[in-house]
Amino acid sequence: MREAAAAESRPYHHGDLRRALIDAARRLLESDGPSALSLRAVAREAGVSPAAPYHHFKDKGELLDAVAEEGWDMLNHALTSARAMAVGVKDKMAALGVAYVCFARDNPSLYRVMYDGSRDKEDLPEHLKMTEDSAYCQVRDTLVEAGADPGDEVGLELATTAAWCAAHGLAEMASFKQFDHLKVAIGGEEAFFRGVFEHMKIFAQDEPK
Amino acid sequence: MREAAAAESRPYHHGDLRRALIDAARRLLESDGPSALSLRAVAREAGVSPAAPYHHFKDKGELLDAVAEEGWDMLNHALTSARAMAVGVKDKMAALGVAYVCFARDNPSLYRVMYDGSRDKEDLPEHLKMTEDSAYCQVRDTLVEAGADPGDEVGLELATTAAWCAAHGLAEMASFKQFDHLKVAIGGEEAFFRGVFEHMKIFAQDEPK
DNA sequence: GACGCATCTGAACGGCGTCAAGATGATCTT
DNA sequence: AAGATCATCTTGACGCCGTTCAGATGCGTC
Question: What stretches of A70-125 adopt beta strand conformation (E)?
Answer without folding.
Answer: none
